[in-house]
Specification:
100 residues, mainly alpha, Arc Repressor Mutant, subunit A, two-stranded antiparallel sheet, elongated
């Protein structure tokens, strides 16, 4: 993380999503209020985080925090991947979730 605003964004998005960091929905306005900054700063931070590969936006406008595969224990990763496969998402592994 580059600064406290990124920490607010990532923490709130990750806490609102599933165990793998997916299906996160937060408005820029809400995150701006939480971080005590303007929505434009939040939009710029989202662009920066996306460019650095830390966040990814999906077609349904949800966000995915790109938590590295090696962050999870083997048991957690197995559970998460079973859930992802059931919902039509690709499993998490070192290729699509490399260390940051």
């Amino acid at each position: 993380m580059a600064d406290a605003v990124e920490r607010v964004i990532l923490t709130n998005i990750a806490e609102s999503g599933d165990g793998a960091g997916c299906d996160c929905y937060h408005s820029h306005g809400r995150l701006a209020r939480l971080a005590c900054v303007t929505p434009e700063i939040i939009r710029q931070k989202f662009r920066d985080l996306e460019q650095r590969g830390i966040l990814r936006v999906h077609s349904d406008r949800s966000w995915e925090v790109m938590i590295p595969a090696d962050f999870f224990s083997a048991v957690q990763l197995d559970d998460i991947n079973h859930q992802r496969i059931r919902s039509g998402q690709p499993p998490i592994g070192p290729r699509n979730r490399p260390p940051l």
